């Protein structure tokens, strides 16, 4: 059956006219925009990246907890992290500085006291072995 055009300018049926228009527009490609792209730069001040030394404090409180300094350092690290979350950078830096100082002291004391304990254990073992040898020699000749 034969379709009559709906507009006097177009000799094609409306469905073919729409397909023809879509085909012509597809050939044009993407629209070319000559306007420059706007960029936004967000600068984060270096003050917000306050190290809280919480991993170091946790290590010291678990493995080098001489005089409970590791636990105290861990408490200050947690306080520093809390201050940082609240937005108090000065308080976070203060607690972090104290935690760092306590961690250094904990590590130094832990190393020295561990080495001292090992040396003391070696000397006590040698002395006990020597006393046991002398005691065995003395008891044989009763």
TrEMBL record:
Keywords: Membrane, Transmembrane, Transmembrane helix. InterPro entries: CD225/Dispanin_fam, IFITM_antiviral_protein. GO terms for biological process: defense response to virus; host-mediated suppression of symbiont invasion; negative regulation of viral genome replication; response to interferon-alpha; response to interferon-beta; response to type II interferon; type I interferon-mediated signaling pathway. The chain crosses the membrane at residues 54-76, 104-132. It is found in: Membrane. One of its GO terms (cellular component) is plasma membrane. Belongs to the CD225/Dispanin family. PANTHER family: INTERFERON INDUCIBLE TRANSMEMBRANE PROTEIN, INTERFERON-INDUCED TRANSMEMBRANE PROTEIN 3. This is Interferon-induced transmembrane protein 1.
């Amino acid at each position: 059956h034969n379709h009559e055009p709906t507009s006097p300018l177009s000799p094609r049926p409306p469905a073919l006219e729409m397909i023809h228009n879509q085909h012509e527009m597809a050939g044009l490609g993407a629209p070319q925009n000559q306007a420059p792209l706007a960029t936004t730069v967000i600068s984060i001040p270096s003050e917000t990246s306050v190290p809280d030394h919480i991993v170091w404090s946790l290590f010291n409180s678990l493995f080098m907890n001489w005089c409970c300094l590791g636990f105290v350092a861990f408490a200050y690290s947690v306080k520093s992290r809390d201050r940082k979350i609240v937005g108090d950078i000065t308080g976070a830096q203060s607690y972090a500085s104290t935690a760092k100082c306590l961690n250094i002291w904990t590590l130094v004391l832990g190393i020295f006291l561990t080495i001292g304990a090992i040396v003391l254990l070696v000397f006590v073992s040698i002395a006990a072995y020597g006393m046991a040898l002398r005691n065995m020699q003395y008891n044989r000749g009763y």
